[in-house]
Amino acid sequence: MTTTRPTFLILALAYSCVCYAGPDAHLDTPPAHSSLNDVFNFADLVAKSERIVLAEVQGSKAGQVTLLVRELIKGPENDARYVDPDRLKRAAELLNNDKVELPALPAAKKAPALLRLALQNIAAPREGVQALFFLWERAEGYSDREPVYRLTHPQNMYDVELLPQVKAGVSRPRSVSDGRFLRDWDKLMSDRKKQKTANQEIASLKVGEVVLGLRIKAARPVLSLRGNNSFGIAAIIENVRGRDQDVYDGPAGGYGVVIRATGDTAVPGLPLVLRQSTKALGADLAVLNFTDMTDFTTVPRDSSISKELFFDSQDFPILTTIKNDCTVSVFFTSHQSGKGLEIASPVWTGTLVSEELPLRFESPDVNASKR
Question: Of 159, 193, 227, which residue constitutes the final position of a domain?
Answer without folding.
Answer: 193
